[in-house]
Amino acid sequence: MSHRQAGFTLIELMVTITLLSLALVSLSSLFVSGIVSDTKARNLQRASDRVQREVERLRSVGFNSIYVTNGTLFESSRGYQVLSSDALLMGTLSFTEASLPNATGRITIAYYNPGSGIYPSLKQITVTISWLGPRLARGSVSNVVMVANRPT
After folding, report:
1. CA dihedral 67, 85, 52, 49 (to 10 degrees)
2. Which has fewest Cβ within 10 Å: 1, 11, 101, 117?
3. 120: domain range?
4. Is residue 5 one of the residues assigned to a domain?
5. CA-to-CA distance for 143 and 95, rounded, in angstroms?
6. pLDDT tens-digit profile of 46-67?
7. Are 122 and 147 in contact, with CB atoms under 8 Å apart?
8. What predicted TM-score, i.e. pTM, was given to this entire model?
9. d(C-alpha 117, C-alpha 93), whole Å
């Protein structure tokens, strides 16, 4: 007479453990992807908000007040630094954004020049924020607007 014992064989147990391990590895990679996506979305939102605030601030002061200088519009105490400026006070500034990892911002102000000549009553403003981080979480946001000199 032979007695069959109830339970699992060693092979069945090893196959089950292998399948469960593969399932857990797949789920963990989904979890990591979710964290990276959430971080990137949060950084994009923060950068977009700051870019929009800068654009709105510049548009609100008006055409005649938008120049690249260390003055009341771009105070160095608020983190602005003039990188370049020409005789017409057009140029590039940099700023920092503390809510993003290793973020740098740039504001470029120039008279609009489509290639056929400069339009002295139209300024082109480009605001860009770039940030560093893990390979999939770095990025940048940019906004280009035109500000016209509207006589009153």
Report:
1. -130
2. 1
3. 13-148
4. no
5. 15
6. 999 999 999 999 999 989 989 9
7. yes
8. 0.78
9. 24
